[in-house]
Specification:
The structure is a single chain. Helix 1 (62-76) crosses helix 3 and helix 6 packs antiparallel against helix 7. 45% of the residues are buried. The chain has helices at 62-76, 100-115, 122-132, 136-141, 176-186, 194-201, 205-211, 217-223, 226-236, 258-268; strands spanning 2-18, 24-43, 50-53, 84-89, 145-149, 153-156, 162-169, 213-214, 241-244, 251-254, 274-281. The strands form two sheets. Strands 1, 2, 3, 4, 5, 6 and 8 form a seven-stranded mixed beta sheet that branches. Strands 9-10-7-11 form a four-stranded antiparallel beta sheet, covered by helices on one side. Helices cover 35% and strands 28% of the residues. It is of the alpha+beta class. The structure holds cytidine-5'-monophosphate (C5P). Cytidine-5'-monophosphate binds next to strand 2 and helix 5.
Length: 294
Amino acid sequence: MKIYANAKVNLALDVVRQRADGYHELDMVMAPVSLRDTLEITPSSTSTDHITCDSPLPADNTLTRALEVLRDYAAAQGKTIGAYDIHVTKRIPEQAGLAGGSADAAALMKALNRLEHLGLSESALYALGARVGADVPFCIAGRTSRVQGIGEIIHPIDTDWEFDLLLVKPEAGVSTPAAFEKWHESRTEMHDIDMVEEALVSRNEELLLSTMVNSLEPAAMALVPELESLREEMTELGLVRVMMTGSGSAMMGFSVDQEVLENAALVLKHRHPFVQVVTAGSSHGTRGSGRSRS
Ligand code: C5P
């Protein structure tokens, strides 16, 4: 079975407060994008899982954690989940703020819920997904949403607006815990995320571009100073708004002019390891309905 794991971007990210357990409560607007990994899942002929990937995977990867969480859940219900061979074709860059690892875990959890007849509702899957990673519930939802809590509270936004944007990730990545730690040194006042949601519902481009915000951007820029020059490069190429997604280090460039996006991509491809025009918004199905430009 072949399934797709779509990346996400943040059209807004505001840090609300730090919880006693160290995690940060957030107020975000997230949208799925057409950039996606592919997972091939087949029941294993052996008794152990085999997870392979065309790039190196750490031992404690999100797929291993997702399998553990689902097996624990199944065991508590008196069920067992068989072993699987899983192969990942990676296209989503890591340490980019694009939820690459979370997207893979979310796609696997949704697929196993069906294959193993676990009968988990979407909200039950969100709760289990949150144990794997804070972005997993959104990736399970897979549609443009207001996302709160540490990432487990999902309110889909009533919009089917899709638009293209340019994603650029420089060589350096940003570690999420490091970005949150740095945020405490450079914290700003809170932002009004309601207007970002309103802009998406009313398809108001001007309102979207003027209200989009990412509270982690100053922290990430302090950790990776080349992000500031990347922003300048992208602005010089005609992108009207340039903002970081998630905890970085990928930057998003916006323009309604497709030619500006494509031309900027052509120029920046020679300078940075990951450059791609993607479609954001609406929903990109895990079973192949989403568009991909890769
Ligand atoms: O859950 P995930 O593995 O994606 O989070 C990585 C790290 O990022 C956490 O260990 C935590 O330090 C930080 N984080 C946070 N608040 C969030 C999400 C992540 O502090 N809402």
